[in-house]
């Protein structure tokens, strides 16, 4: 059964469909204002939380603490540099089999998963050795 969504939630979903990349709650707020679909920042956060609990939106927290939201269409995997903040998407996923096992053994409905490795990119490694 589909949950009844508020107008704010529908506006956020439509925005995320058109953006196709991670975006912060503050940027969602600004973008909606630019599209003459204003809502309060607190409403943006509440709507994102509801959509996340429904499994429609996923959140990815960067090394600097910023949260990026996007549609929960596929699993996301990244290499993230702790020095410069560069984030490199990776396509391999070693945990898909584990996900299926966990759903089965724990009777747990998994909407999506993220996998993120933190370290130093090539440029930051070179800069460290140059010092």
TrEMBL record:
The lineage of its organism: Bacteria, Bacillati, Cyanobacteriota, Cyanophyceae, Nostocales. InterPro entries: FUR, Fur_C, WH-like_DNA-bd_sf, WH_DNA-bd_sf. It comes from the Bacteria. Belongs to the Fur family. Pfam families: FUR. PANTHER family: FERRIC UPTAKE REGULATION PROTEIN (PTHR33202:SF19), ZINC UPTAKE REGULATION PROTEIN (PTHR33202). Keywords: DNA-binding, Repressor, Transcription, Transcription regulation, Zinc. This is Transcriptional repressor. It comes from Brasilonema bromeliae SPC951. The keyword Transmembrane helix does not apply.
